[in-house]
Amino acid sequence: WMVCLLAAFLVAPASLLAQNGQKAQLDQVLDEMNVASAHFRSASANFSADNYTAVVQVHQEQGGTIAFRRVRSSAEMKLHLTDEGGQATNRELLYKDGVLYIYEPSLKQETILRAGKNRQTYESFLTLGFGGSGRELAKDWQVTFEGMETMDGAKVAKLNLVSKSQTVRDNYSHIVVWIDPLRSIAHKQEIFMPSGDTRTVTYSKIKYNTRLADSTFRIEVAPGTKKIVK
């Protein structure tokens, strides 16, 4: 028992040191994101997504482009889906002024969702790796630092996020992001659902703080399109 007792005394300080080291690294990452967020104006990228449905064990691939910008204290996002399951598509999503627009030209339909009281939740997702500060991240999520990696030549922090909102946790168990803290830009995101479904998104050809035309954040809706407001 003396050996066990000695081992316990030796292991405990080592474990504590490791925890303290991780906390220090996480604090540094969050501090760097705070600085980067203050300088963030816009970002655009190509993306590829793998959507896995656990119950039927099926993967569906998607691809397209995405753009973000900050307008005063609000975030705007435009997503253009160009490929879905190997088939060309032309779906668009736009988030602007607290409203989410989903345009499906093939159906001649535009769905409009107003964030309302959920606006903060909407925007916490939008800025999850695109201009958000470390302060905002720690406010909305329980953050665990899982090390540093290299992606596309950038040093990225791997962070495991669990929402502090039960409503969000009911839909998303946790999210892992690989984020460049010096620019507050995600290179990869992996979203886990309680059902076992996952969505993995990888970003490439990232452009940071380049000027994006106002037309980037508009949807040109064809005449005769049915509007559904929710």
Topology:
Blueprint: H1 2-39, E1 42-53, E2 58-71, E3 74-84, E4 87-96, E5 99-104, E6 109-114, H2 119-126, H3 134-140, E7 141-151, E8 154-163, H4 166-171, E9 174-180, E10 185-192, E11 198-208, E12 226-229
Parallel strand pairs: 6-12
Antiparallel strand pairs: 1-2, 1-11, 2-3, 3-4, 4-5, 5-6, 7-8, 8-9, 9-10, 10-11
Give a structural overview:
It is a single chain. The chain is α+β, with helices and mostly antiparallel strands and 230 residues long. The protein has 4 helices and 12 strands; from the N terminus they run H-E-E-E-E-E-E-H-H-E-E-H-E-E-E-E. It has helices at 2-39, 119-126, 134-140, 166-171; strands at residues 42-53, 58-71, 74-84, 87-96, 99-104, 109-114, 141-151, 154-163, 174-180, 185-192, 198-208, 226-229. A 12-stranded mixed beta sheet has the order 7-8-9-10-11-1-2-3-4-5-6-12. A hairpin with a 4-residue loop joins strand 5 and strand 6 (109-114). Helix 1 (2-39) packs across helix 3. The termini are far apart. The model is unreliable at 1-10 (pLDDT under 50).
Q: Got a strand count?
A: 12
SSE series: HEEEEEEHHEEHEEEE
Poorly predicted segments: 1-10
Strand content: over 45%
Whole-angstrom Rg: 20 Å
Mean pLDDT: 88
What is the rounded distance between the termini?
A: 66 Å
Q: Count of helices?
A: 4
In helices, the fraction of residues equals 25-40%
* Physical arrangement of strands within the biggest beta sheet: 7-8-9-10-11-1-2-3-4-5-6-12
Structural class: alpha+beta
* Spatial shape: globular
Tell me the major beta sheet: 12 strands, mixed
